[in-house]
Design goal:
The protein is an alpha+beta fold. Helix content is 34%, strand content 17%.
């Protein structure tokens, strides 16, 4: 079966460090077969965002701020139990962790610059609106 495929890139050249990841396994309530009551296929992946050295300081601050509701003592936990195989659940947890961290460390979007609608466009819209109203008014059956 081999080791986990990797490295799991957060963004750019920043990757999830294997040494800073902690795994927990338990019995899954998800799909299963003969070994459903005996195999520990649910995976919990823990990553200490507050103590990590892998993230640049700016990213770390951003992640701590944005993930505040999900963190317990600075530790982010991701669970996976969709698959019967522990290996596939581990892969799923790693992918989820990388995507959560990528989203949390993304730079804020550029502020929207307010723009004014050009006068010509507004006048044309009002002209078309009046023409449409005239067309509809002409459809009323007053002449019968």
């Amino acid at each position: 079966m081999g080791g986990m495929p990797g490295p799991y890139v957060i963004r750019g050249s920043v990757v999830l460090p294997e040494a800073e990841l902690a795994w927990r396994f338990s019995r899954s309530s998800g799909p299963g077969g003969q070994h459903v009551n005996t195999s520990d296929s649910r995976v919990e992946l823990l990553f200490d965002v507050a103590a990590t050295k892998a993230l640049p300081d700016v990213w770390k601050e951003r992640a701590l701020e944005r993930l505040a509701a999900r963190l317990v003592d600075g530790v982010l936990t991701v669970r996976a139990s969709e698959h019967r195989s522990q290996f596939r659940n581990r892969e799923m947890a790693l992918v989820r962790m990388a995507s959560v961290l990528a989203e949390a460390t993304a730079p804020p979007p550029k502020a929207r610059r307010a723009t004014k609608i050009p006068r010509g466009i507004n006048e044309r819209r009002l002209r078309e609106k009046k023409a449409r109203a005239q067309t509809k008014r002409g459809r009323t059956g007053r002449d019968w």
